């Protein structure tokens, strides 16, 4: 719920209140139990909310029923994240990818949207457009999806050329991955002296950025900053981020950045590992970079003592912000690359 609050604020909402219910399963009709829906409706009088956000993906039926019971807009977690993506997308490809994901999200929800309008009924202009209209709309959305896919494909072709040049040169790609807000871009900047947008916000980065880097052994690598992962994000949505996916597929090594000061650090790293597995990348060698250690260590010496005590060769303690532990990280990268 804390994370949902952050997401909501990032999307531009103000949080008026939160409600939690412990249920064996979400109810098919309302997601919540009947009594809880009433409680939520009563809360409207108290705090005066005008939108309700659920921390899960809702079925079209659940969404419609809730909107009718509460008489406000109801948004689910996926739609909220897509909204943030839409706000953040900077490149043309980024925007196309978000639009694609939004349309793919909308398509199965379309019938509900219309019968919803029909049921709200009564009065001119609110009458349902009927099945014929529905079919037209479905077709339009499918056409739009195809068009977006084609456009993305074109950009991809250009990128493939560039990629081929890269691979001819034989420079391995090292991709920085991790939960959103873990410090990926900060690490990327520290390693490459780049100026990628760093923000204490979720999904500050949407498009992958790549820089060339020289390791201590003089080996050249390409280092890539990528979009953050988050729990309960449908893989179909991640799949819309072709550029990031391609970058990950091509990578010789993944650096998994973990904010170890976060109280859900373990859950977050599990989510990242699960997503990696779902994307078929479980076999990629990776280094875990435990980040933000400056929040509990007072100097770089502090952490090197700790690091040598651990002896785990593929785990490195770093502070991306202070630049601590980066030499060790670079050595680890060189070592891992020489093994694979
Ligand atoms: N104290 C401390 N803060 C850090 C460190 N690294 C990153 N941060 C902060 O963590 C926040 C997120 O950093 P980003 O680099 O934007 O994180 P990200 O993983 O790229 O996030 P997204 O692109 O949004 O997924 C920012 O406020 C950073 O200043 C660190 O080593 N120490
Ligand atoms: Mg970032």
Ligands, deduplicated: guanosine-5'-triphosphate, magnesium ion
Strand element count: 8
The total count of helices amounts to 13
How is the biggest beta sheet arranged?
6 strands, mixed
Describe the protein.
The chain has 340 residues and is α/β, with parallel strands linked by helices. The protein is built from 13 helices and eight strands. The chain has helices at 2-10, 34-47, 60-70, 77-88, 92-106, 110-120, 130-169, 184-192, 235-239, 242-250, 265-278, 300-310, 326-339; strands spanning 51-54, 73-76, 173-178, 209-214, 220-225, 253-259, 286-291, 315-317. The chain has a six-stranded mixed beta sheet with strand order 4-5-3-6-7-8, with helices on both faces. A two-stranded parallel ribbon has the order 1-2. The relative contact order is 0.10. The model is unreliable at 116-128 (pLDDT under 50). It binds guanosine-5'-triphosphate and magnesium ion. The site of magnesium ion has 4 residues, from helix 8.
What are the SSEs and their pairings?
Layout: H1 2-10, H2 34-47, E1 51-54, H3 60-70, E2 73-76, H4 77-88, H5 92-106, H6 110-120, H7 130-169, E3 173-178, H8 184-192, E4 209-214, E5 220-225, H9 235-239, H10 242-250, E6 253-259, H11 265-278, E7 286-291, H12 300-310, E8 315-317, H13 326-339
Parallel strand pairs: 1-2, 3-5, 3-6, 6-7, 7-8
Antiparallel strand pairs: 4-5
Helix pairs in contact: 1-4, 3-6, 4-5, 5-7, 6-7
The chain binds guanosine-5'-triphosphate and magnesium ion.
